[in-house]
Design brief:
Distance between the termini: 48 Å
CATH superfamily: DHBP synthase
Pfam family, one: Sua5_yciO_yrdC
Largest sheet: 10 strands, mixed
CATH class: Alpha Beta
GO molecular function, one term: double-stranded RNA binding
Structural class: alpha/beta
Oligomer: single chain
Number of domains: 1
Helix content: 25-40%
Shape: globular
Strand order of the largest sheet: 1-8-2-3-7-4-6-5-9-10
Number of strands: 10
CATH topology: DHBP synthase
Strand content: 15-25%
Order of helices and strands: EHEEHEHHEEHEHEEE
Protein name: tRNA threonylcarbamoyl adenosine modification protein (Sua5/YciO/YrdC/YwlC family)
Radius of gyration: 16 Å
């Protein structure tokens, strides 16, 4: 059964955040809010968590997972950002964008795109997510909580708890979440390619 944590959206209770972080460090899988949709998350090194995410979402091994980071400095530990795209990436975070970039050696090979050796990174502009990442001190391996056969992510934490109670270890709820996922920008070739138009304005990256 998933533990359920209902926190204030602007001032999340530190005790609840600490308990969710403890769950993650014990190998747990959580659902948590972001500035776009609810997401699934576990620690980067959690192999079992990765497979549980794949099972919940019905994903194959070609799916691009995302490292959800606290800030730009942390992003720089896990991806190579060329001079050509440095400013545009820095200006767009935090925000509802996922950037596909060449991975550094800090990223486990199993998370990389098999051919391009890239990984997704993002920094959410969400108070609760930021509190979680600050307490955790490392990125979350993450993907949008989109269930097979459905077009939109659930917007209520209690609904996620009801539907995925036996597949998750914790649900972090801060009120209703959105249904529009992030805008995905591939910057692996320096020339931006918009792969998905979502919550972030894509025009700043359109050539």
């Amino acid at each position: 059964m998933a533990r359920y944590f209902d926190v204030h959206p602007d001032n999340p209770q530190p005790r609840a955040i600490s308990q969710v972080v403890a769950t993650l460090r014990e190998g747990g899988l959580i659902a948590y809010p972001t500035d776009s949709c609810f997401a699934l998350g576990c620690l980067v090194g959690n192999r079992d968590g990765l497979e549980r995410i794949r099972a919940i979402r019905g994903l194959d091994d070609k799916h691009h997972f995302t490292l959800v980071c606290r800030d730009f400095a942390q992003v720089g530990q896990f991806v190579h950002i060329s001079n050509a795209v440095f400013r545009s990436v820095k200006a767009a975070i935090p925000g509802s964008y996922t950037f596909i970039l060449p991975a550094t050696r800090e990223v486990p090979k199993r998370l990389l795109h098999p051919r391009k050796k890239t990984v997704g990174v993002r920094v959410p502009a969400h108070t609760v997510t930021q509190a979680l990442l600050a307490e955790l001190g490392e990125p979350l391996l993450s993907t949008t909580l989109l269930l097979p056969g459905e077009d939109e992510a659930p917007v209520q934490g209690w609904e996620i708890k009801e539907r995925l109670d036996h597949q998750l270890d914790a649900v972090l709820d801060a009120g209703e979440c959105g249904v529009v996922p992030t805008t995905v920008i591939d910057l692996s070739e320096d020339v931006p390619e918009v792969l998905r138009v979502g919550a972030g304005d894509p025009s700043r990256f359109e050539v």
